[in-house]
Design goal:
Elements: H1 2-18, E1 36-38, E2 41-43, E3 45-49, E4 55-59, E5 64-71, E6 77-79, H2 87-92, E7 99-101, E8 107-108, E9 112-115, E10 118-121, E11 130-131, E12 144-149, E13 152-159, E14 170-178, E15 183-192, E16 196-197, E17 201-203, E18 205-206, E19 220-223, E20 225-229, E21 242-243, E22 255-256, H3 267-272, E23 276-281, E24 292-295, E25 301-307, E26 311-315, E27 324-325, E28 331-332, E29 338-343, E30 358-359, E31 365-375
Antiparallel strand pairs: 1-2, 3-4, 4-5, 5-6, 7-17, 8-11, 9-10, 12-13, 13-14, 14-15, 15-31, 16-30, 18-29, 19-22, 19-24, 20-21, 20-23, 23-26, 24-25, 25-31, 26-29, 27-28
Length: 377
């Protein structure tokens, strides 16, 4: 009898050893940890790979880029974005990590704007303003996912009329394409059945060293912009467009992110708690021109940003404070990353002299952002 029990135990052990293990991504993510249901909609993790070995993992919860694996100057692979190991953290820990933001990226003053004579009041979730579409913006909603092939993922979000009090039934799409030259080409589109506003972006937090336990203040930043839109102490654009020349806002000559970041005698850095501003791009919608470039001296990894948008928000992780633990148990401290959010300018609905964010029935909103990675040896 004892022999039978022993043999049964050995057999069980051998079966367990031979049982298929979950396929873990190159970045170390277990797709099983991203499977759940939110508001009756199913979430999952989708993996894109190219022939060069680059890998991008995306969850349809919030249309979030979870990891980006790219080669460094030594041939090793580094995960260059902040995020979480499981869907539970994305649901339970408020964040914008990697998200496809909508309906309106960035801030709207006091959450209020006028459209055809009607005053529309949105939720106020940031210093009295509406930030990133409100507290239940699209980063907290489930997109319908369609993985077209091994390098392409299409996400669709149907946002009903009155969603966070925005007008119009809007159908928005985010198309992620991983190219063979190590770029993530993100195309946004949207249609509406009622006049509305829209401004979408991706909110990835980049640390190109691959080690977000270290601040990204040593990264070298270039921004192709001669002007920026200053903010008040509540991070709201004042309506001015000021030159960057002879100020800490000038990144026309590449310099370390941290070189001037603590010069709080310059009131804009005090107001922003560092860099948290919109730059007015010189590219004028030409997606073939580099809008911004970020380089890690430690790994040699270079990120170039291309866009047809008029602006880019540079945010240096000023509000990360060590209370959030991300992938691989790494604590995210202040300035552990740099965000480069391509966009129309903040509060454009209330500033008619700036490029319009109005979308009419019969029109299609189109926006594109390319994150291209390379190595500087």
């Amino acid at each position: 009898m004892k022999n039978h029990i022993f043999l049964a135990g050995v057999a069980a052990f051998m079966l367990a050893s031979c049982a298929p293990k979950p396929d873990v991504t190159l970045s170390g993510l277990n797709p099983m940890n991203f499977q759940t249901t939110v508001n009756g909609e199913t979430t999952a993790l989708y993996t894109l790979k190219n022939q060069s070995g680059m890998e991008v993992c995306i969850t349809n919860f919030g249309g979030r880029i979870v990891s980006i694996m790219v080669p460094d100057k030594n041939g090793g692979m580094q995960d260059v974005v902040l995020g979480f190991d499981s869907i539970a953290d994305y649901i339970n820990v408020p964040s914008d990590f990697g998200a496809s933001i909508g309906r309106y990226a960035n801030r709207i003053n006091q959450g209020k704007f006028v459209l055809d004579g009607d005053t529309i009041q949105l939720p106020q979730n940031n210093f009295g303003h509406c930030l990133h579409g409100g507290p239940q913006g699209w980063q907290y909603q489930v997109y319908e996912a369609n993985q077209i092939d091994g390098t392409t993922l299409e996400l669709t979000r149907v946002s009903p009329d009155g969603d966070q009090n925005f007008p119009g039934n809007v159908t928005a799409k985010v198309l992620f394409k991983l190219t063979e030259d190590n770029a993530i080409d993100i195309k946004y589109s949207a249609t509406t059945d009622k006049k509305t506003i829209i401004n979408m972006t991706n909110h990835s937090y980049f640390n190109l060293s691959g080690n977000p336990a270290q601040p990204a203040t040593d990264h070298i930043l270039y921004v192709n912009a001669d002007a920026y839109t200053p903010v008040d102490s509540t991070f709201m654009t004042t309506g001015e467009v000021l030159p960057v020349k002879d100020t800490p806002m000038d990144f026309n000559t590449p310099k370390p992110v941290g070189q001037d970041i603590d010069k709080y005698d310059f009131v804009q850095l005090k107001n922003g708690n560092g860099y948290d501003h919109n730059w007015v791009l010189n590219t004028k919608g030409d997606i073939k021109q580099v809008a911004a470039r970020l380089t890690s001296p430690a790994t040699g990894i270079v990120l170039e940003v291309y866009t047809n948008e008029p602006g880019v928000q540079v945010y240096t992780g000023n509000f990360l404070d060590g209370t959030v633990t991300g992938k691989k148990g790494i604590v995210y401290n202040q300035r552990a990353s740099v965000c480069l959010e391509t966009q129309h300018y903040p509060d454009s609905p209330n500033k008619p002299e700036w490029p319009s964010v109005v979308l009419e029935p019969g029109q299609t909103y189109n926006s594109e952002c390319i994150f291209k990675f390379s190595v500087e040896k």
